[in-house]
Design brief:
311 residues; alpha/beta; 26% strand
């Protein structure tokens, strides 16, 4: 089949590479325009644009699919559109521009977590399972019938960024399988059933850690907002990014100290922070204006920890 592929971030790259290596033809790649990146704010193409250029594929950039972009897609005379995290909604007649419409790779077990941040919200909720779903794109948000939903186990220590990277790889295979089935005329899509839940884009407020919550909730929240928007707390006036944590597994032979929520203590070579129940180990932090560092080393540099609280 002749395809148009739409996507922007790194999570869309495995699908682009997988389809480029298939028997199908990619007529063009649609992605968002370059954005300023890094401290020097260098105008940088999206990861998808960079890989498309590497593969020698035609690229057109647009922040929204307006009449002009729709006309350009229609002029490609493609059979199917494939979209992965493009970053803008498609409306009719854009949905109808490819002969067979569009399929979308979404990183949740639909109808759960419809929206912009399905992996982040699932990890924040402490979920242990999700799925990579490929569905027919419709005008309603992530509501189309599903061709395939491949289950995915969430590592209890993995960050949302790590989960998404792994799902992007496995999801690319799901997309390729569905595209092959559509080409063969054997694909079957099933309407979504059950009560939908939403996964709105995360904000800086989602990254503020409440150490009064139980350790499992704090750990899940920290993982779910890493790397974006990033977990943080304040030590006095200093903002500290919290990059990685883990749950304590020590038994009666090595009991952790009882700590008030947010209170810090070094124990067994690790930095512990109090929560609403048991302490949590902080593994990596980044104080404002400094590089990421081992959390215990950072704590030793603070001197006496008694009375020092993350809040």
């Amino acid at each position: 089949m002749r395809l148009v592929v739409a996507g922007s971030p790194a999570a869309a790259v495995p699908t682009l590479r997988r389809l480029a290596a298939s028997d199908h033809e990619i007529a063009a790649v649609l992605t968002r325009p370059p954005t300023p990146q890094g401290r020097k704010r260098v105008l940088t193409p999206t990861p998808v644009a960079q890989v498309a250029a590497e593969l020698g594929l035609p690229v057109f950039e647009a922040s929204r699919v307006d009449d002009d972009v729709t006309a350009r897609i229609a002029a490609l005379d493609v059979d199917l559109g494939v979209i992965v995290a493009y970053g803008a909604l498609l409306r009719r007649p854009a949905l109808d521009a490819p002969r067979l419409g569009w399929v979308n790779l979404h990183f949740s077990d639909l109808p759960a977590y419809r929206g912009a941040a399905p992996v982040q919200r699932a990890v924040m909720a402490g979920d242990t399972r999700t799925a990579a779903s490929v569905f027919q794109l419709v005008e309603a948000l992530d509501a189309g019938p599903v061709f395939a939903a491949d289950p995915f186990e969430i590592d209890p220590e993995a960050t949302a960024g790590e989960v998404l990277a792994a799902m992007a790889e496995s999801g690319a295979e799901t997309v390729a399988r569905v595209v092959d089935a559509i080409a063969a005329g054997t694909a079957v899509a099933t309407e979504q059933t059950g009560e939908p839940t939403l996964a709105p884009k995360t904000t800086i407020d989602d990254g503020r850690i409440d150490f009064g919550a139980p350790a499992a909730v704090v750990h899940a929240r920290l993982r779910g907002v890493t790397p974006e928007p990033g977990a943080y707390a304040h030590l006095g006036e200093t903002r500290v990014k919290l990059l990685r944590s883990n749950r304590l597994t020590g038994g009666p032979a090595d009991p952790a100290p009882q700590l008030a929520p947010g209170a810090l203590a070094l124990h067994g070579g690790r930095l512990l922070v109090g929560t609403g129940d048991t302490p949590l180990a902080l593994l990596e932090v980044q104080p404002a204006g400094k590089k990421a560092m081992d959390a215990a080393a950072w704590a030793r540099g603070l001197g006496e920890l008694d009375g020092k609280v993350l809040a």
